[in-house]
Amino acid sequence: MKRRDQGVAMTVQEHGIAAGHVLLLRYLNRAAVLCEQGYVSGSAIDTAMRLGCGLTAGPLAMLDGIGVDRALELMAGAAVTPAPLLTAKARQGRAGRGFGPLTQPDAAEPVDPVPPSCVGIVGSGTMAAGIAQTLVVHGLRTALVARGDEQAAAARRAVSAALDRAVARGRIDAAAGAEAAGRLRVSASIDDLADCGVVIEAVVEQQDAKRAVFAALDRVCRPGAVLATTTSSLSVADCAAVTGRPADVVGMHFFNPAPVMKLVEVGHTPDTALRTVVAARALARRLGKVPVSCPDRSGFIVNYLLFPYLNDAVGMVERGQAGVAELDREMEQVHGFPIGPLALLDTIGLDVSLAILHRLHEQFGDPATRPGPLLTGLVAEGRLGRKTGAGFHLQRPSKGAGR
């Protein structure tokens, strides 16, 4: 991988102030602003962005690699107003590793929670099935509840197919795959979650739908059961508000694909009990994940930094400052991102991305999260990315085209 300072310097020398250069600096600067706000620690920011986005380094480590003084010079050339924290570090003589060390230490938990005998999941989509697969592979009895028998059966098929692929690829042996499949039960009755010590809601990212699930879980689940939402952009507190047990409600934001991605953002409200946070973190670690705790707010860490970066990329294309393929190629080949921003939007889904941007803008009022007409127009046209075969990179095949 190229050193970030070398990559930025090469871009400046060969192309002037290239769009990708500006895009990167704005992303790094926003991370510095987030660190300055004190929402979470610098190590939490870097751990979350590295594991949640598949990056080789977090944004603050990237700033250290460039050097704070050099980053300030580059920001001046790119018309990026630097975070006051960066200016302060430069004045303090911390021009090199101004943020380091940024490795997140393993937190010593105050209690050692007993693993749940059963974990419940509400939902039947990709995320619900992925979490169910992860749970059963790691030896946990799992009860998945869908909104109907057909959806429950489809979720079971999805988990079974994923386990079969894991066996075929040698990731687990056939006996382990069969045992894992045997740990999953599916149904369409929320009452089947009554014996679960942890229940993870993974339904559509709509507040009314999530609130309805939590109201039902409040009725069904035993006292002290941990009730977790996988939301990435909605309010954990709103889910808790429809229950009589806000101390038991926590966010557990898994990343897609759940069996592969290592990060779980654990979002806690002022009412979330410490035992609930500890239980959620312990479950994440049992699943081979790295939990990063953060206060409840829209976007947590990753989406708060990721979606302004993606929206910024859309704006550059919209204004004619860069082409889609050109910008993606620069972010991958010069700046070391695993996937370009427009390709990532196609993968996430343009409709999902638009909804997240609206929620972020509603909560924070940040101009960086205000969607522009290009993204809004593509969604209105039904060009939602990979799932529809049309987006920034993808085009629907013409009628009559051969398969």
How would you describe this structure to a colleague?
By secondary structure, the chain is of the alpha/beta class. It folds into two domains: 1-105 and 322-338, N-(1-d-carboxylethyl)-l-norvaline Dehydrogenase, domain 2; 118-295, Rossmann fold, CATH 3.40.50. It contains 17 helices and eight strands. The chain has helices at 4-15, 19-37, 42-53, 59-66, 68-77, 84-91, 126-137, 149-168, 174-182, 207-220, 236-241, 274-286, 302-318, 324-333, 341-348, 350-364, 373-380, and strands at 118-122, 141-145, 184-187, 198-201, 226-229, 249-254, 263-268, 290-295. The protein has an eight-stranded mixed β-sheet with strand order 3-2-1-4-5-6-7-8, sandwiched between helices. Helix 7 packs across helix 8, helix 13 (302-318) packs across helix 15 (341-348) and helix 13 crosses helix 16 (350-364). The longest helix has 20 residues, at 149-168. The protein starts with a helix and ends in a 23-residue tail after the last helix. The model is unreliable at 1-15 and 398-403 (pLDDT under 50).
